[in-house]
Structure formats: C-alpha cells, structure tokens
Structure prediction request, 253 residues.
Amino acid sequence: MLGGIAIFPLVIQEWWEKNSSKLIVALTLGIPTAIVLITQGYGHELMHQMVFDYVPFIVLLGGLFAVTGGIRLEGDIQATPLVNTGFLALGAVLASIMGTTGAAMLLIRPLLSTNMERKHTAHTVLFFIAIVANTGGLLTPLGDPPLFLLYLRGAPFTWFMHLAPEWLFTNLLLLAIYFITDTISHRREDVASLQLDILNQQPLKITGLINFLWLAGVIFSVAFINEQYLPFMKGSANPLKFIREAAIMVMII
Prediction:
C-alpha cells in the first residue's frame, strides 16, 4: 500500500488520480489480508480494532478535516525567507492543535500565493510537508494518527507534552535548514520576479472564524471525554466509548 502511494503517482498518474483507482488498490490488498487474518483465527481481534480503533480515528480525522476546512486564510505577502520560515513555524505549532491535516489545509493556500511570483520554490513545499504535515504534530494526540491510536490505548492526553524537547529540537533544526536553503534560493531569483513579488502584495485575511469554536469543541472532546475523566467508559468492548465520537459528529454536522 505504501509502495503504491509512493510509486503510482509517478508512473500511472492519471489512473491514480481517480478515487475509484485508490479504492481498487485498497480492496485488492485489504480483502486478502482480512481473509488471511480471519482464517488464522484473528477475526475477533480484527473486528475489535476496526470498531474501537479505526472508527474513532476516522471520526476524529473527518471532524478535524470538516472543521478546519471551513477556516480560510488568504493573502499574498512578500515572500522573503523570514516570512516563509514564519509560515512553517506557525504550522509547526498549529499542527499539534488542529492536526497536521488541518494546519496544512489552512496554511498551504497563503504560502503558495505568497510565493507565486518566485521561481525557485520547490523546496518550500517539501519542507512544508516535513514540518507542518509531520513533525509539527508531536505534542498532542490530535497531531498525528499514530499518536491518537496510542491515546486510544490509554496514554493520557497530556503525556505527549513530554515530547516537547524532541518537538522543539526537530522543528528548530528543520526550520534552520529551511531558512538557509530559502535564503540561497531567494538570492537566485531575478530582479523582475522580486519586484513583482513586492508589487503584488495583498494583506492576509481569515474567514470562517466560527469554526474555531467547533475546533475547540473537538479538542475538548478528545481531551476530556475519556476513561480518565469518565470511568463509565472503561471496558475493552464498552459501547459507551463512542460518546466522544458522537460529540464530534454532532459538532461537525
């Protein structure tokens, strides 16, 4: 599956862009895997993970996607190395609050608009993926899917804050490398592109502020609707575990 995600966009791009193609690959790989697990006697474990791990994960991811998708940041400011590094630094912070997907959705549009007049910008998107869509989401279970699965297994919401030194070191290192790289690239830009970048500036503006309220609700649900604060949710197959997911669904509907 991971190999297909990496290779198919390069070798069969048009076919891979269709959602039906992704579904075909998922079913082709998933159904035989499920059959093998069931025949080996792991049917109960498979069903348990699908219901109590996969469903909460999809609900959270969908909730963050729906809520943050309604927040739109637009504008075109001067694309200096400091400004671009600021975008990535902001994304590193927001990734742990609104998820890596939400932070990426919020910042990618203004970042691309800001750098539209520059010609040497490929590295900016690569570092954006590395920082905003990956290492930035280390401080809460909202940030990265594996952390949320660990949270579902019983890790306290605040436990992930212990990773702050690693988060700080990794992101500062990446930001420093990016700043140096972008400074070099900025010096390679021709005068016409830099002048156009200055002339075509538009102030940043944000819409959909009401969605920050729903975002706070999702964060509150994940942080406090759990076995630590609500003991009646305990139990490996307790249907009351889905109170959190129900609350998130209500907010995004």
